[in-house]
Amino acid sequence: MGIYFGTDGIRGIACRDLSTDTAEKLGNSLGQKKRCAKIIIGRDTRISGSLLTSAFAVGAMKAGANVIDVGIVTTPCVALLVKRFNADYGVMVSASHNPPEYNGLKVFGCDGKKLSEKEEEELEELFSSPLVCPKLGQLSYLTNGVKIYEKHLESVTRLDFKGMKIALDCSNGASYKIAKKVFKNLGAVVFTTGVSGNGEKINEGCGSLHIENLQHLMKTSGADVGFAFDGDADRIIAVASDLTVFDGDKLIYILAKHLKSKGELKNNTVVGTSHTNSGICHALEKNKINMIRTDIGDKYVIEAMENMNLSLGGEQSGHIILSSYASTGDGVLAAIKLSEIIKESGKSLNELFDAKLYPQENRTYRTNDKLRIINNEILSQEIKNIQNKLPLSARILVRASGTEPKIRVMVETTSENDAIKYADELISVMKKIDNH
After folding, report:
1. Which residue of 96, 285, 376, 406 has the fewest C-beta atoms within 10 A of its own C-beta?
2. Residue among 29, 48, 94, 96 flagged as catalytic
3. What integer is the mean pLDDT of 380-395?
4. Strand order of the sheet with strand 395-400?
């Protein structure tokens, strides 16, 4: 991992951790990597988006690159447009699920896939040697990019959703217009929340991290199913008609069984991460479906899928990759395919899900000194002590977030009380180290 790039691009509080200077350097380095590069750039609704987009364009054009601004779009829309217009790179200005004050820069290659760590490191090496090209690049605007993406989404199903009532929480983010329009065009009755498009409220009490907002809409609307996206709509969390929450693990399981029944699950294998609930793994095995784990991060999932030519993978957080239709995670696409399963089967999400999950307690500890805490010997010893008290099948994960000043803790075991107890103990140890 580089100095600027984290697990999902460059990210930080806008104009503080993530400056216009950094955005300009990234644009310039991409212009240096490919002569006369064609770069597509889009953004979510954040207030800082237009500023960072402009700074990036300045840097890229100085290096001779031509920049095509597609406006407010989702991350998977940028990935799609890169391939449709034979661009050399795509850049999404978004901090995904992070609060409004954050922003980020995600970079895609000509194949619509996120850059590898090696490619990111190569870009960083060019940050310190800016180039001003004799022939400067130009900036242009693409006004029909969203329509191209919407048509693509509508083409992924042959079913008419007439008679279905679907609730959507668009997190006041990039999908605030797109998702409703697509589902209406597919015939569904649509109820929405989080569609103000107000970048000052993106992810604030809404979207995939605040599922209670969608549950309230479900309760008042009587919808059959609900879907919540994050700020750039590359994540999805679902809610069943009885208000049960379905995270990425559960949705991937439902999709895997369906794809296998259709003969569309390549190599009968799914990709998950170290966070994927072990109950999902066992349930997939019973259905004669293999699951392989990667490190946490959708780019690692996609890399594994590509290496093994697989059609499905994702994360508990809601990144779901359906490689037959998209090169990256796409929340709206996943929502359409799940709605297709519900419509075709006549079953609810609850009826479609028959796996037994292991008790898993997930916590976050906010700190500005996450690496010191993670590498502290006292914490390492505490993890070993807890592991020795738990069954061999139990799992403990403690990792520094790659996008926020947080440490994430997961304890998975056979007892819910133990999972809660030991997660509490780990957080307590972190607090002591942090305050020492």
Report:
1. 285
2. 96
3. 94
4. 360-366, 406-412, 395-400
